[in-house]
Specification:
438 residues, alpha/beta, 9-stranded mixed beta sheet, 7-stranded mixed beta sheet, 11 helices, 21 strands
């Protein structure tokens, strides 16, 4: 029997899911009210094998996405940070699935690579073809005096000096977004009350650089009904120089709040390139200045995610990420151990890392066994995802799951203690899992 249960989960009512996909990125952000966003995708054939330790992400999305029309799984947005295979693997299968993608976010880098005849994997080509189709559909709608429909929408994020050479150049200004802009509209819907995405990169100066240097970088804010905010930081596969530029530019422009974070998806799958670079003597050295910036803008209970295979026992020259040096650096600036998707809760049976946004507390790490128990309840009752609307989730101090210790309550830990004191440990929490009666 195939062990699909290894990587099953239900989506939180509001929150984020980091799927175990080996060394690559697949992140699902749930805004609430039937709106879900996918940032990157890695769905490998290995997910269909017996004893799989990676998620069949597309299958899971088909099962758990909302169905506003009662039939079709609906993904409001798909955003691709850059066209490396470990960020878009399986995109062709996603297009051929039953899932409807309302809007796609793409960077100009794809057009430049095509014009320069640079090799792209098959899924990157499928992504580019789909974006071109949407550009054509949008231009036709504009010509007819209409808005493009859901399923045809596209947003181009970033600027390229070669813009006038490419098809997207003819799009009206409202279909472009640049660093420093805030996105509060998802697939034609105003969602400012529950979501904001601040664009940090790609920068114009790097449009002709390496593919990793043109990664889409975002700070995403999720907002609960009581005003509680959870902040996610996505930096693609960027390395030290550009990450430092993001922090320094944000501070200089009075946007320091836009680099604050509660959950950080570590750049380039916990690569040391995020905080190690050549020094004046040409030797690789730790760049403490960037670590200081990360720490200065982290919340008291900030968590770092490594979307990667399990860490090796040691870093060897030439090893791809994840790097122990990077993990140690992140753990020097936070109170908790790095959560690795390939090790959570164990290397043998990894599960998705799920954070739910809870009013009054923020982004809370959800007990994975609680999620799996609910999946089994649904299967037994044949009740579908709506059953989950009546269920809360079990919260727990994140340190208890990783072995990290905290000397005293702080941040959300302190808030949690206050909530428990007020209502008792057995009272049902307010976080909901699932989409309710949508």
């Amino acid at each position: 029997m195939k062990r699909y249960d290894m990587v099953e989960t239900e989506l939180p009512g509001q929150g984020v899911v980091f799927w175990p996909v080996g060394t690559g990125d697949s992140t699902t952000i749930v805004l609430g009210d039937n709106l879900v966003m996918q940032v990157d995708l890695r769905d490998m054939k290995a997910a269909d094998e017996d004893d799989a330790v990676v998620a069949a992400v597309i299958d899971r999305l088909e099962e758990t996405l909302p169905r506003p029309d009662g039939e079709t799984p609906y993904l409001a947005v798909f955003a691709l940070t850059h066209a490396d295979k470990d960020h878009c693997c399986g995109f062709g299968d996603l297009l051929e699935s039953s899932i409807r993608i309302g809007e796609i976010w793409a960077t100009p880098r794809l057009w430049r690579e095509l014009s320069e005849d640079k090799p792209m994997c098959e899924d990157a080509q499928r992504f580019q073809e789909e974006v071109e189709r949407r550009v054509d559909a949008t231009l036709k709608a504009v010509k007819d005096g209409k808005e493009p429909s859901s399923g045809n929408r596209v947003r181009i994020i970033g600027y390229d000096e070669d813009r006038e050479l490419h098809s997207y150049a003819e799009l009206p200004d409202e279909y472009f977004t640049f660093p420093g802009d805030v996105i509060t509209k998802i697939d034609g819907q105003d969602v400012e009350d529950r979501f904001e995405a601040f664009v940090h990169a790609p920068f114009k100066d790097h449009c002709a650089g390496d593919r990793n240097d043109t990664s889409l970088a975002l700070q995403v804010q999720l907002k609960a009904s009581d005003g509680t905010v959870g902040r996610l930081l996505f930096l693609g596969d960027l390395a030290y120089p550009i990450i430092k530029m993001i922090f320094e530019n944000s501070e200089a422009a009075g946007n320091a709040d836009r680099v604050e974070w509660d959950v950080l998806l570590s750049p380039h799958h916990c690569s040391k390139k995020a905080m190690y670079a050549e020094g004046e003597d040409g030797e690789e050295e730790l760049k403490q200045d960037l670590l200081d910036l990360f720490q200065a803008h982290a919340s008291p209970d900030a968590r770092v995610i490594a979307s990667s295979r399990p860490f090796r026992d040691k870093d060897d020259t030439g090893n791809d990420p994840p790097h122990l040096l990077a993990r140690e650096a992140y753990e020097s600036i936070t109170d908790y151990e790095v959560l690795c998707t390939g090790e959570y809760p164990s290397k043998e049976e990894p599960r998705p890392v799920v954070f739910a946004l809870e009013p009054g507390l923020g982004l809370e790490l959800v007990d994975v066994t609680d999620l799996e128990n609910r999946v089994q309840v649904l299967k037994a009752a044949s009740g579908g995802r709506r059953l989950l609307a009546a269920m809360g989730t079990t919260r727990f101090p994140a340190a208890s799951f990783t072995g990290a210790s905290v000397s005293h309550p702080r941040g959300t830990d302190a808030a949690r203690a206050g909530v428990q004191q007020a209502r008792g440990d057995k009272a049902e929490p307010t976080v909901q899992i699932g989409f309710g009666a949508a």
